[in-house]
Design brief:
By secondary structure, this protein is of the alpha/beta class. Helices cover 32% and strands 19% of the residues. It is globular, with a radius of gyration of 17 Å.
Length: 247
Amino acid sequence: MAGIEWKVVPICEKQLRDVNASDILNNGLYRKCNIYKGGGGYDKFADIYNKRKKNDIDLSVQFVVQLYGCTLDCPYCYVTRDGVLGNYCSISTKQLVKDFMNSGLNVFHLMGGAPAIYIENWIDILRHIDTDYVFHSDLLLVEKEYDTNTLKELAQYKNSLYAVSVKGSTKEEFKNNTRTEFNQELFWKNLENLVRYNIDFYITYTGMSEQSIDRFKQELKERLPSDYDNILKDSFNIQLVKYAALD
């Protein structure tokens, strides 16, 4: 197994206000998450995956690994800055996969922060997860330019599904939601490449008004008219909830 070391941030103290003690795994290095528990619109992953893959797997509880770092600074982020930029542990792929297998769960959710900072390394996990299990991660489209060879290889793994998080359709809205500048050129280039190389993803909208979502859809229709319906078929708006970690 390859010798990649992952920067895993343990569950921070603030997050413990929202995470049940029974959900803590490996002394807080990881956690499990019931996607039907907390609201906020995160309850559609299992339905989307099983519908697309024509399966009926129990995907309601995920094995969650938090990776260090993020290119954004979203004020509503339930991971908190401590959870995104906290002291991390270096964990090998071999150990990550072993801990996942020992958890008894079906979904390996690699999250952040911004896990696509490390997108070229995702394949190292996928290579060692049995196809009976599911790999899930998240894309912001603005972390960096996604390597096309990486996307080609990722597309080969059919036991994966990715969430593309859209946080604004204008520079002003994106900055309000993320406290960072919106690199629109990079955003659209990455999205077009996800489509071009057949990455299986769905879109979520976070912190966006209905007018802004409509604006995004219009631009999408102009840029990718032939793929428009397919891209949006499972998209949904995430309603922000108040987390105790942010008090």
